[in-house]
Write a structure and sequence with these properties.
It is an enzyme of class 3 (hydrolase). Its main location: cytoplasm. Residues 411-425 have a biased composition (Basic and acidic residues). This is ATP-dependent RNA helicase RhlE. With 494 residues, this protein is α/β, with parallel strands linked by helices. The chain has 2 domains: 3-210, Rossmann fold, CATH 3.40.50; 217-372, Rossmann fold (3-Layer(aba) Sandwich). Helix content is 31%, strand content 16%. It has helices at 10-19, 26-36, 51-65, 86-99, 117-124, 134-142, 159-164, 168-176, 193-202, 233-244, 256-268, 282-294, 304-307, 327-334, 355-365; strands spanning 41-44, 79-82, 107-110, 129-132, 153-157, 183-188, 207-210, 221-227, 249-252, 273-276, 299-302, 317-320, 344-350, 371-372, 435-436, 464-465, 468-469, 482-485, 488-491. A 7-stranded parallel beta sheet has the order 3-4-2-5-6-1-7, with helices on both faces. Strands 10-11-9-12-13-8-14 form a 7-stranded parallel beta sheet, sandwiched between helices. α14 (327-334) links the parallel β12 and β13.
């Protein structure tokens, strides 16, 4: 089957030819016709199978063929693509720019962690395709910088992760800003039954596209487990990288602190490494990824959320330095390698504490993962399993008691401070424009992080706020206030 047989326009086919795309992947073969027909879609396909092109190509064609709606705005937002992370948003934006090279459409990517003013200025100039993270989109809507009343097509990409991160309230708030009559598409690597139930409440009689079996790893990926004592993991990792002369390795940890510490230790071992996670600035994350792609560093250490949307061609090695708390995340992690038709290797370093997590993963995969053993690294049988300690901001997070707070988690919300919550706003300070601080700061009538308390509220790791909790980002004030997360400040018209 060719792209031409899918009914794509000559302009899009030309752009695909310039990119060297010869034939559509299975998910593209199935999804593109449905999108062109105007159907809602719930699509499940493994990472690296071409999900982005499966929705962007037909969307671009539909927008090019349909006349723009009449209105005051010359280029209204007609397609909205929501993603959970900055990296994924940026990657989709790059793809759209390439695919629309010969079309007259204008696109824009907006996410948190960077100045909002340039984004507002570009929106004023008119944008037809908007790629956004939920928090920044709501910031822009709050400031009346974006009008979503003429959106014709909505895409939720990595939908399972967005819902998992606690963005469900943000997503529902966005839905209220959209026309009732629209086409909606959900794309994700996996869909649990719970996610499917929620998806069906957001979609209208969706067509189902399921390329790979649910929660399965690509057959292109060779998987191994090496049992090792926790205190010797870093030594074993360095040994394997050096012994096998691995030049490009993506390593996963559970926590931000763990990612930083491991990158530092690898550099001391003479192995160039960098860490990316939600506490890193967007500039630092972009530089680290660019260095990794270009061979400037051999190892990129990442947390689960930060790695979503990373597009690294022909990545040969993924290492689970620590197993994820949720088995489905294992599939997401190792899906960074073995993309499309390429092959890859996924190695998990497992200590006695993680045997339960390993069993969960193998139960999900419905098969055991082969064991390997490097001489000299046999685990000490006298060491007993201990509960896995979750560091600050690790894991999937959850709301604190007593409120409908946002979940804690790496990169929660799209910048620093966790997803917004629906419902009551935090109380203002006495001045009406109080600023909240995270990691130790306190405010008048506000919240403190890391042990501080406030009147009528509670303290917590990263700070607390009225009726909810923040994740790794410090507390925040009410309308008109500013909030700081992990030492950084950001203003917002709330």
């Amino acid at each position: 089957m060719s792209f031409d047989s899918l009914g794509l326009s000559a302009e899009i086919l030309r752009a695909l030819a310039e990119k060297g795309y010869l034939e559509p992947t299975p998910v593209q073969q199935q999804a593109i016709p449905y999108v062109l027909q105007g159907r809602d879609i719930m699509a499940s396909a493994q990472t690296g199978t071409g999900k982005t092109a499966a929705f962007t190509l037909p969307i671009l064609q539909l927008l090019e063929q349909r006349p723009a709606p009449a209105g005051k705005q010359r280029r209204p937002v007609r397609a909205l693509i929501l993603t959970p992370t900055r990296e994924l948003a940026a990657q989709i934006g790059e793809n759209i720019t390439e695919y629309s090279a010969h079309l007259g459409l204008r696109s824009l990517v907006v996410f948190g962690g960077v100045s909002i003013n340039p984004q507002m200025m570009k929106l004023r100039g008119g944008v037809e395709v908007l790629v956004a993270t939920p928090g920044r989109l709501l910031d822009l809507a709050q400031q009346r910088a974006v009008d979503l009343s003429q959106v014709e097509i909505l895409v939720l990409d990595e939908a399972d992760r967005m819902l998992d991160m606690g963005f469900i309230h943000d997503i529902r708030r966005v839905m209220k800003l959209l026309p009732t009559k629209r086409q909606s598409l959900m794309f994700s690597a996996t869909f649990s039954d719970e996610i499917k139930t929620l998806a069906n409440s957001l979609l209208d009689n969706p067509a189902s596209v399921e390329v790979a079996r649910r929660n399965t790893a690509s057959e292109q990926i060779t998987q191994f487990v090496h049992m090792v004592d926790k205190k010797r993991k870093r030594e074993l990792l360095s040994d394997m990288i050096g012994r096998n002369n691995w030049q490009q390795v993506l390593v996963f940890t559970r926590t931000k602190h763990g990612a930083n510490h491991l990158a530092e230790q690898l550099n001391k071992d003479g192995i160039t490494a960098a860490a990316i996670h939600g506490n890193k600035s967007q500039g630092a994350r972009t530089r680290a990824l660019a260095d990794f792609k270009q061979g400037g560093i051999r190892v990129l250490v990442a947390t689960d959320i930060a790695a979503r949307g990373l597009d690294i061609d022909l990545l040969p090695h993924v290492v689970n330095y620590e197993l994820p708390q949720v088995a489905e995340d294992y599939v997401h992690r190792i899906g960074r390698t073995g993309r499309a038709a390429a092959t890859g290797e996924a190695l998990s370093l497992v200590c006695v504490d993680e045997l339960g997590l390993l069993r969960d993963i193998e139960r999900l995969l419905k098969k055991p993962i082969p064991r390997i053993a490097l001489p000299g690294y046999d685990p000490d049988p006298s060491i007993k399993a201990e509960p896995i300690q979750q560091g600050r901001g690790s894991g999937r997070g959850g709301a604190t008691r007593g409120g409908r707070g946002a979940p804690a988690g790496d990169g929660a919300r799209d910048s620093r401070s966790g997803p917004r919550r629906d419902g009551a706003q935090p109380r203002r300070s006495a001045s009406g424009r109080g600023a909240a601080s995270g990691n130790g700061g306190a405010r008048s009538g506000g919240a403190s992080g890391n042990g501080g308390a406030r009147s009528g509220g509670a303290s917590g790791n990263g700070g607390a706020r009225s009726g909810g909790a923040s994740g790794n980002g410090g507390a925040r004030s009410g309308r008109g206030g500013n909030y700081a997360g992990n030492g950084g400040t950001r203003s917002g018209n709330r």
